[in-house]
TrEMBL record:
It comes from Allgaiera indica. This is 3-isopropylmalate dehydrogenase. Belongs to the isocitrate and isopropylmalate dehydrogenases family. LeuB type 1 subfamily. The keyword Nucleus does not apply. Keywords: Amino-acid biosynthesis, Branched-chain amino acid biosynthesis, Cytoplasm, Leucine biosynthesis, Magnesium, Manganese, Metal-binding, NAD, Oxidoreductase. It catalyses: (2R,3S)-3-isopropylmalate + NAD(+) = 4-methyl-2-oxopentanoate + CO2 + NADH. InterPro entries: IsoCit/isopropylmalate_DH_CS, IsoPropMal-DH-like_dom, Isopropylmalate_DH. It comes from the Bacteria. Homodimer. Pathway: Amino-acid biosynthesis; L-leucine biosynthesis; L-leucine from 3-methyl-2-oxobutanoate: step 3/4. One of its GO terms (biological process) is L-leucine biosynthetic process. The lineage of its organism: Bacteria, Pseudomonadati, Pseudomonadota, Alphaproteobacteria, Rhodobacterales.
Amino acid sequence: MTNTLLILPGDGIGPEVMAEVRKIIDWFGAKRGITFEVSEDLVGGAAYDKHGTPLTDATMAKAQEVDAVLLGAVGGPKYDKLDFSVKPERGLLRLRKEMDLYANLRPAQCFDALADFSSLKRDVVAGLDIMIVRELTSGVYFGEPRGIIKEGNERVGINTQRYTESEIARVARSAFELAKRRGNKVCSMEKANVMESGVLWRDVVQEIHDAEYPEVELSHMYADAGAMQLTRAPKQFDVIVTDNLFGDLLSDLAAMLTGSLGMLPSASLGAPMANGRPKALYEPVHGSAPDIAGQGKANPIACILSFAMALRYSFDQGDEAARLEAAVEKVLADGLRTADLMGPEGGKPVSTQGMGDAIVAALDAG
Ligand code: NAI
Ligand code: MG
């Protein structure tokens, strides 16, 4: 099967970190015989500058066809005053919506060399490796009715938390499938004590488990208790599955257990395509970082680890993904640090390019 990949570097540091991913992609082609048909296109402010829209129909169509989309970041001060309909983030939102990417995978993994970077004690986070699966296309961010209405002589802001059974079932399946490839454990988080949607969430997750994944260990937790447990003893978890709103908060919380924004990858997956591969968009969690753009300071690891996720989840190359993650671990253990990773204990300062080159060298050595 050919491997097709659409690269959308975007704005700010997006193109800088993506250039380092290109080196990694080339390495896998040259040294491991894993080749990709790569196309590249514009998204966000870069697309607006050229086409007057943050995502053209042609780019959207291309994204629907390929096995995986890899995106850098979008946005920047230059575009802040644009009309909402053409803002850079609309390009990203359109991709997520039209590809129907309902499962957002946010790993929180603590590399030993960076354990002192966490806001928590070293022994609480060292070796941490958890995955938060956030439902991404429904829930209170999309539910109708919504709006600000007038009630008597005051305004009322309204949003609706709404989940259908099938929306819950499909993201639950994503979580159970992931767990089977990891630690075989899923914890589902909602607020079934106070929300109807939470009651349904809990029931449907349990039903899917009992009918299709009885071998996976399943537990349920209220999302507020989950937040406490994530900061008290995060290593108790393997896969956490939760809705859009709680997932937004819990994944950001979990991210900070592990240190810098420059280290965090993500994947957003949808339904399987004709070739069996899921619709997929991979992107670092960070934004376009205009404060450091163009200075060679950006940490490319978040984007490189996003490509590792693509190897694992789109191209069925789990061993090669692990090889890449080990190379990242190695350069960190060797003390190489982009500016964002430079802690009190110091390290060997490297630029964006220096970090990319070092990871390629570690792949060569491994
Ligand atoms: P940001 O993530 O771009 O930056 C936050 C801070 O983290 C900055 O100090 C930045 O220098 C640093 N940082 C981020 N990524 C880094 C990396 N790889 N290496 C080293 N340091 C890094 O978030 P911010 O400043 O709130 O937003 C900047 C722009 O990015 C805005 O236009 C925003 O809309 C956009 N944005 C885009 C996202 C996306 O494309 N998915 C996500 C978040 C923000
Ligand atoms: Mg968030």
